[in-house]
């Protein structure tokens, strides 16, 4: 079955009645086998146009206490990936942090590892009712939902942060304000090989039942 953005239901509007939860074996199977694709295994083509718009729309359907929408997207694609890579490489060079030409070349190509990179920006909203921590969690949910949406369209994805997420000068070059943080960089593309399962903690080992 070919999946296109037009396969999806139209975006609901406020106060529309939405479907109640119902058993869905295909959905549960997808969750049971969900696995990120390593960046080294992503190649072109990546999502673009209406498909990328749909992935972002689906990614944004997350729990959001207070309906604040404390996040936004910055897209790196095409030549802009290299342009931003050159900026962060120049930043490291100007500081004297990195002088090795090979390492600087790696930084220039950092965002060329996938055809599309989505930066999910955490933009806190002043609220007397919604703690910032809850807003952080909402932004994290957006990152994960993007991976699921991309998988639904047949693309692989990898959610990373990397040093750029913790460097205020690099974040300023990306367009973040001093109050904003980077929730993640989601690399999207076509997998070159199937992912392999990795060691995972079992849910049962993390469960306790409260007793009075």
Average pLDDT across residues?
A: 96
Specify the helix fraction band. 25-40%
Query: By helix and strand content, what is the structural category?
Result: alpha+beta
Can you tell me the residue ranges where pLDDT is under 50 for at least 5 consecutive residues?
Answer: none
The main sheet comes to: 5 strands, antiparallel
Strand content is 15-25%
Cα(first) to Cα(last) distance is 52 Å
If you consult CATH, what is the topology of the domain at 35-77 and 111-192? NADH Oxidase
Using the alpha-carbon principal axes, give the shape.
globular
Number of helices: 6
The CATH superfamily label of the domain at 35-77 and 111-192 reads NADH Oxidase
Q: How many β strands by DSSP? A: 5
Task: Using the coordinates above, name the CATH class of the domain at 35-77 and 111-192.
Answer: Alpha Beta
H and E string: HEHEHHEHEHE
CATH architecture of the domain at 35-77 and 111-192: 3-Layer(aba) Sandwich
| Cα radius of gyration in angstroms | 19 Å
Molecular structure report:
The protein is of the alpha+beta class and 212 residues long. It has a domain at 35-77 and 111-192: NADH Oxidase, CATH 3.40.109. The protein has 6 helices and 5 strands. It has helices at 25-32, 49-59, 79-95, 101-108, 132-152, 168-174, and strands spanning 42-43, 71-77, 116-122, 156-160, 181-191. Strands 1, 2, 3, 4 and 5 form a 5-stranded antiparallel sheet that branches. α3 packs antiparallel against α4 and α3 packs antiparallel against α6 (168-174).
